[in-house]
From TrEMBL:
Recorded topology in the membrane: Peripheral membrane protein
Coiled coil regions in record: none
Protein's name in the database: Cell division ATP-binding protein FtsE
MF-aspect GO terms: ATP binding; ATP hydrolysis activity; transmembrane transporter activity
Top-level taxon: Bacteria
Any one Gene Ontology BP term: cell division
Assigned protein family: Belongs to the ABC transporter superfamily.
InterPro entries tied to this protein: AAA+_ATPase, ABC_transporter-like_ATP-bd, ABC_transporter-like_CS, ABC_transpr_LolD-like, Cell_div_FtsE, P-loop_NTPase
Amino acid sequence: MILMKDVHKTYANGVVALSGINVDIKQGEFVYIVGPSGAGKSTFIRLMFREVKPSNGTIRINDINVNDLKERKVPYLRRNIGVVYQDFKLLPKLSVYENVAFALEVIEESPAVIRKRVMEVLDLVGLKNKARFLPDELSGGEQQRVSIARAIVNHPKIVIADEPTGNLDPETSREIMKIFEEINDRGTTILMATHSKEIVNTFRKRVIAIEDGLIVRDEHRGDYGYES
């Protein structure tokens, strides 16, 4: 599902973000990306959906060579990747329903399909009864649930979550993690960058640790391994 071979990334200002990354993530895996701030985690994540391109090396996502992908094809790659952010990135003037539906409207799904899928995912994340609410009428945990619903409404094969519990209290974080586990149980590959020691050590999954642009640890059911 995700294959990186000898991937390097050096930015125009000379900062070396990644140096010789090799990783193979299978369909249906749940993987944490951990490491100190500035280690290269964000670059690792951004390479997945072609927000940035590698300086050297090969990246294949769902058997697509990301390096050689023409710009006009990038949106098609991203249709199979759902992204969940720490700060939600919801559209403030749109309702919960409209925020989630927007992800399907941009790919011109029919109104009938949109309604069916949106209500299905809102039910999954426990917000079916708040479909008409605006984002500022929701708690932080509820806003993150909307963000997750938007990320999965198009049935992506991969969900990338960048610090999805970073702004949430511990109890809400655990509730959000249970949603991610359910999504993963349905066959979706999940890649999650996190600084949460509690989350990683409670919900044991594969752990890839990055330090100074290098993978220093790759463990099945690993622990966080750092002070949080």
